[in-house]
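Lab notebook, bench 4. Still working through the backlog of constructs that have no structural model yet. Next entry is a single chain of 207 residues. Request: give me the structure tokens for it.
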Amino acid sequence: MLRLWGRTSSINVRKVIWTAQELDLAVQRTDAGGQFGLVREAEYLGHNPNGLVPLIEDEDGYRLWESNVIVRYLCARYAHGGLYPDDIKARFVAEQWMDWQQTTFNPAGRDAFIQLLRTPAEQRDDARIVQSVNATVPLLAMLEAHLAKNAYMTGEQFSMADIPIGCEIHRWFALPLQRPSMPHTERWFQSLVERTGARGVLDMQVS
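Model written out:
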């Protein structure tokens, strides 16, 4: 049994849920963060000094925080090829895109998400939305160009890299914005939505 702390409204928690489902892992989840609190309590901070979600505890008491690291760990421990590529070059292509999602793509789109979905209309900062959209559009073009040549992020096979970027695109597509045509990204994303492991993640309402 894998223990997971985190609320499903968190993109980073959804990454872990999706990964666990792909691997057929039983998960005991405790709501934490946001309106659920818990993350500033001493016991939680003793396990995750960042005071954020997600946090996992594996069956042997092994604990980890940082969502993409958790995805990598679960795939490395429980996947047999595929999700965690055996080929070292393919594996580091997956690592590359996972880092890109967390350090480049997510920060670019964060303000648009926060302003449009989590901020009352009368309190929104339009300048921040515009800046966030302008930062994200070139990254979407980069992703579209990559997926024009690849079925998935690392080539022809679904891998751990598709999970965080799929969660990010799920969130971006939920924003009430006009977007340029992205047929290759849309084709790829639809293939993710149809995965059994993505149920309850990519079909949930983003908020």
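Notes after review: The longest strand covers residues 2-5. Helices lie at 11-22, 42-47, 67-78, 88-117, 126-147, 162-173, 183-193. Flag for follow-up if needed.
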